[in-house]
Amino acid sequence: GRAELMSIQRAARLDALPPYLFVEIDRRKRAAIEAGKDVINLGVGDPDRPTPGFIVERMQAAVADPKNHRYPFDEGVPAFRQEAARWFSQRFGVELDWRTEVLTLIGSKEGIGHLPLGVVNPGDYVLVPQPGYPVYQSATLLAGASPFVMDLTETRNWLPDLAAIPADVCKRASLMYLNYPNNPTAAIAPRTFYEEVVAFARQHKMLIAQDAAYSELYFDAKPISILEVPGARDVAIEFHSLSKTFNMTGWRLGFAVGHADAIAALAKVKANMDSGQFNAIQWAGVEAMRRIDDGEIRALRDMYRERRDVLVAGLRKLGLRVRSPEATFYVWAACPEGCDSMSFVTRLLEEADVVTIPGIGFGKAGEGYFRMALTVGSDRIREALERLAKVKW
Fold first, then answer.
1. 265 vs 141: CA distance, rounded Å
2. d(Cα 352, Cα 256) in Å, to the nearest integer?
3. In this predicted model, what pLDDT tens digit does every residue of 258-285 receive, in sequence order?
4. Percent helix, percent strand, percent coil in the chain, to nearest 5
5. Is 284 buried (19+), middle (13-18) or exposed (0-12) by CB count in 10 A?
6. What digits encode the pLDDT tens for the residues 100-111?
7. Which of 135, 163, 167, 185 has the maximum number of C-beta atoms within 10 A of its C-beta?
């Protein structure tokens, strides 16, 4: 027989990571599907429509070109970074130097996850918003730094209260994560908030990392970039992604823009950790960004708007408290009085075969809420609402 496997020491830093709650929900979802149930998945933020054909065709041509079969450029294909800078200028009125202020990423998650390794030291504080994307906290812990949680609340429109951060934390904080339009709350940050944050970062000599993955999934007013605020380029880096805008989640393509030193630090971490994104994907990304104003892309926003309106109206009819999102494809709603989020979403799955995400999965401050993604058709959303109407709470 096989010799007994030697037990390998597991790094303590892994034990410091919070449990990824979505794993447990996924397990329950799979069990329901295996039991033959018709599950409606409003859980994961993964677009249900295919990548537009014009992007796929550009990719097909690029894959066939042997020049793209070699190691990619470390900082990214110059044409992709130039196109990102051109789009940034057109969309936000901010002129970037594509050589020093734009960096290709293997999706924005990768850049967000690697950033602390380049800009924080063990023992530093990193200011992390919650409810929020779990990667901000896990990236902080993996870099040996200490997360300080900034609680976001509905009364403050899901913006952190900078005045509530203790002075000793400010002194030792080297990085602050922000995310607007926000996942999971769908909140948008106004210019006045970005101005306040930029002043705060200057005062305390910390870097702002603003995750703008949902900047192009808006329904009314276009969200602004933090880099539009005077002085922001001295203190901020912003992450953009092609995933949600172009239905390219699986392609893994994004870019970081902003503070040249922060971009250089992130580039150095990446040069030691990965070899960049496949050039062919970056050429497809050039095509995507060139045609971001195509009718096909605008139609995606209209589709999400229609789904949003169906879901929000239906939830309100059921007596749930919910704000209509101005951006993202998420709807963030309050659980019924007296229900904790985990047991509430468990009941929705068990009694209605509808998957949603509990607010507690985004940190303690998310307790009392649950998140739904607009990534199924309006007909399925209507069916989910009919099922939810039968659940007694």
1. 18
2. 41
3. 999 999 999 999 999 999 999 999 999 9
4. 45, 15, 40
5. buried
6. 999 999 999 999
7. 185
